[in-house]
Specification:
- Keywords: DNA-binding.
- This protein is α+β, with helices and mostly antiparallel strands.
- It has one domain.
- 50% of the residues lie in helices and 12% in strands.
- It is built from seven helices and five strands, in the order αβααββββαααα.
- The strands form two sheets. It has a three-stranded antiparallel sheet with strand order 1-3-2.
- Helix 2 crosses helix 3 and helix 4 runs parallel beside helix 7.
- The termini are far apart.
């Protein structure tokens, strides 16, 4: 396990495999792979078998958390890697309060996007 893997594991409490996400979203696993490919979800290889997994916090009430895709696009445009995006999304921000991932799940995406845009300055 690399240092960044360990850091992300410490930050992200729960993970889901792609077939589990497909079941939660009521879509085929190929659609979940497409969401990852399109940058609407982040999947990283984890565990002994290095299977793709997505933070469970990105799925709520049978859908991808509102505002996640736009936030990921902003962060990607700022030059963030997937690992850096996960670190940013799951690191507590006292001004939110909570983590950006929690704020997105609580429908406070505007605040999260504002902070993501500020990173580009």
């Amino acid at each position: 396990m690399t240092e960044i893997d360990a850091k992300i594991d410490a930050l992200v409490p729960d993970w889901l495999y792609l077939p589990d996400i497909a079941e939660l979203l009521d879509v085929e696993v190929t659609r979940v792979r497409q969401l990852v490919k399109e940058g609407q979800l982040i999947a990283v290889r984890r565990g002994e078998n290095r299977a793709l997994q997505v933070p469970a916090a990105f799925i709520k009430d049978g859908r991808v958390v509102k505002g996640l895709a736009g936030t990921l696009t902003l962060l990607r445009d700022d030059g963030f890697s997937d690992e850096e995006m996960l670190e940013w999304l799951f690191t507590a921000d006292d001004t939110l309060p909570g983590t950006p991932a929690e704020a997105l799940a609580e429908n406070r995406g505007t605040e999260v996007k504002r902070r993501a845009q500020a990173l580009a300055v």
